[in-house]
Design goal:
Order of helices and strands: EEHEEHEEHHHHHHEE
Distance between the termini: 73 Å
Number of helices: 8
Number of domains: 3
CATH superfamily of the largest domain: Doublecortin domain
CATH class of the largest domain: Alpha Beta
Largest sheet: 4 strands, mixed
Oligomer: single chain
Helix content: 25-40%
């Protein structure tokens, strides 16, 4: 059984946890009952419309609408008046089912070399790690350096992911070039080799040493 947390569109408050079963219509019906609205659509935290129940994963955070466009709760909600102009990078953390609203600055400024600061340093490297922890598969988007993800996995001590990444990096390396050289290339190599050195060449059947 999957469980999701529902919020009203544009609001980081009044959350409700519901079980996901049946169809998308069943989820909308449950959302309407829980939130006291007439739910017509559901969005994920990135503002993407959920049009298939299969797209919903366990512990997802969803925003329920009554027909209006998606409103990003982080840009729509404002911090307390005394903090305006000081903390503008508000975010909500789900820690074991408990939600904490704070700022990125709070998490990283005190310990800039700590784990939390490292996690927010480059989201591109952390996203594959989060996805791996969620469903056990290594998925890295184009343009993301596997070595960067590997260093991130080592930092957090995720041994099983380290093994997957090391294999993926090895498989991504170009194969050694074993294509045969031409007679002209061989003569050029031979002429370029100092007289006191040896040139080692090997074909499919035998090895040739030239002194």
């Amino acid at each position: 059984m999957r469980r999701v947390t529902l919020f009203l569109n544009g609001s980081p408050k009044n959350r409700k946890m519901v079980a996901v079963y049946g169809t998308l219509s069943d989820l909308l019906s449950a959302a309407s009952s829980k939130l006291g609205i007439k739910a017509t659509s559901v969005y994920n935290g990135k503002g993407r419309l959920i049009d298939d129940i299969a797209l919903i994963r366990d512990d997802d955070v969803l925003f329920v609408c009554e027909g209006e466009p998606f409103i990003d709760p982080q840009t729509d909600s404002k911090p307390p008046e005394g903090l305006l102009g000081f903390h503008t990078d508000w975010l909500t953390l789900n820690v074991g089912g408990w939600y904490f609203t704070t700022t990125r600055s709070t998490l990283v400024n005190k310990e800039p070399d700590g784990m939390l600061a490292h996690m927010f340093e480059d989201k591109g490297y952390f996203e594959p790690i989060l996805n791996y922890l969620r469903h056990g598969q290594l998925i890295v988007n184009d343009g993301i350096n596997l070595l960067g993800v590997l260093e991130e996995a080592r930092f957090f001590g995720i041994d099983s992911l380290i093994e997957h990444l090391e294999v993926a990096i090895k498989n991504s390396q170009p194969l050694e070039d074993h294509s045969p050289i031409s007679r002209k290339e061989f003569v050029r190599f031979l002429l370029a080799t100092p007289t006191k050195s040896e040139l080692r060449c090997q074909d499919e059947f035998q090895e040739l040493l030239c002194f």
